[in-house]
Amino acid sequence: MARPHGRSPMVITHEGGLKFAAQIRNHRLIVDQPAGVGEDAGPMPLELLGASLGTCVALYVQQFCEARGLPYQGMRVELDQVGAQNPGRIARYIVRVLLPEALPPQYAELLERVARSCPAHNTLAHGTEVDVAIEAPAAAVA
Question: Is residue 100 within 8 Å of 112, Cβ to Cβ?
Fold first, then answer.
C-alpha cells in the first residue's frame, strides 16, 4: 500500500504489560491502561481520539480568533466522552470551547462552524474507512 504524502507510518510497539509506544515522526507517545489494569503510564488508546478532536477544535478556533484580532489567550477546550456498547465505542463527544472574553455577536455562529470544520471533527462526523491487514512471515516448508 502506498504511503500518503510520502510520510513514514506511525509505528506502534509493545512495551510490556498493557503499555504500548507510538512513534509519530520524532515524537514517542506512551499509551497504557488505568492503574489496577495497567500501569497508568499514559492515556488509553480511545482517549487519544478525544484528545485529537479537542486539540484540532482548539487549533481552528485559535487560528480564527488570531486572524481577526479576537481574544483567545486563556481559551480552553473541555471534552467529555460518552461510551456505548455493542460494539464498544464512543457514542458521543461533548466539546465545549471556553473563551476568555465575550465575542462580538456576529462571530458566535461563525466560530461554531469553524470549530466543526476541523479535520478531526470531519473525520468523526463523516466516517472513515479503516483497512486492516495482518502480516506475518510465511510458515517454513517442512
Answer: no
Single out the residue of 127, 128, 115, 99 nearest to residue 55, CA to CA: 115
Cell triple for 35: 492503574
**What are residue 45's DSSP bridge partners?**
none
pLDDT band of 34, cuts 50, 70, 90: very high
C-alpha cell at 16: 510490556
Mean pLDDT computed over every residue of the chain: 93
Residue 56 burial (CB count, 10 A): 21
DSSP H helix total and E strand total for the chain: 3, 5
- Which residues are paired to 20 by β-bridges? 14, 31
- Under the phi-then-psi rule, with left for phi > 0, alpha for psi from -120 to 50, and beta for the rest, what region is 8? beta
The residue whose grid cell reads 504489560 is 17
Residue 4 gets which letter from DSSP?
G
How sure is the predictor about 65, in pLDDT bands with cuts at 50, 70 and 90? very high
